[in-house]
Design a protein that fits this description.
single chain; 220 residues; alpha+beta; nine-stranded antiparallel beta sheet; 9 strands; 34% strand; globular
């Protein structure tokens, strides 16, 4: 039986008393603290999972917003890095419009971090270094998957996986595919959100002006 609209409307919970408090002036330092907290929370699965939103143009020439979950693999004062197939829908969208958003939804901690910025490809050296650190099976999967393209059946994908597994046996060198690599998101704003009682949530947004980051509190 499906959930009715009254039940959906009644879905609510009370958030805790703890607010954001004092964050560091450096948003990357603040993010590192929150990411560590999320990593150490036993309820959160994949604390580095983030929702990536991109804008592309559909067949009718209109803007089309798409979202998906990807994994953060590195961050620094330069930006936030993830890896993907460069032929994928997300990568093609970034080629058209590099303005993107990221969201870390740490629901179990009543927290989220949202980031606005511009995505750019990382160097081939950086992509290769990360690819070579991956488990063998993940490397073969990157070769086998023509990400975002139509798949006639699961058997087709399994056959390609077997083909590349035989071409690059476990223990042998698996080269980095030319169609695979990383993107670094250079942020222009980073917002920290903490759920609080009576929906009086805490919000702190850092905005970059040239090389300087300024922050302000926002109404919930």
């Amino acid at each position: 039986m499906s959930v009715n609209r009254e039940e959906i409307a009644a879905m609510r919970r009370s958030y805790g008393e703890a607010g954001i408090g004092q964050l560091p002036d450096d948003p990357f330092e603040a993010f590192g603290i929150w990411l560590k907290d999320a990593k150490e929370n036993s309820i959160i699965v994949e604390a580095n999972a983030m929702v990536l939103s991109t804008i592309s143009v559909n067949k009718d020439g209109a803007d089309e917003l798409t979202t998906r979950t990807v994994l953060l693999k590195d961050f620094s004062h330069e930006g936030f890095t993830f890896f993907t197939n460069y032929s994928s829908r997300k990568a093609q969208s970034i080629e058209i419009n590099p303005q993107i958003s990221l969201l870390f939804p740490w629901y179990a901690m009543e927290r989220q971090v949202s980031i606005l910025g511009t995505a750019r490809k990382v160097s081939s050296e950086a992509s290769d270094a990360y690819f070579q650190s991956r488990p063998w099976a993940h490397k073969i999967g990157a070769w086998a998957s023509e990400q975002s393209s139509e798949l006639k059946s699961r058997d087709e994908l399994d056959a390609r996986y077997k083909e590349f597994a035989e071409k690059f046996p476990e223990g042998s060198h698996v080269p980095t595919p030319e169609h695979w690599g990383g993107f670094e998101v250079i942020p222009t704003s980073i917002e920290f959100w903490q759920g609080r009682y009576s929906r009086l949530h805490d919000r702190v947004r850092y905005s970059r002006e040239s090389t300087i980051w300024n922050w302000k509190r926002l109404n919930p």
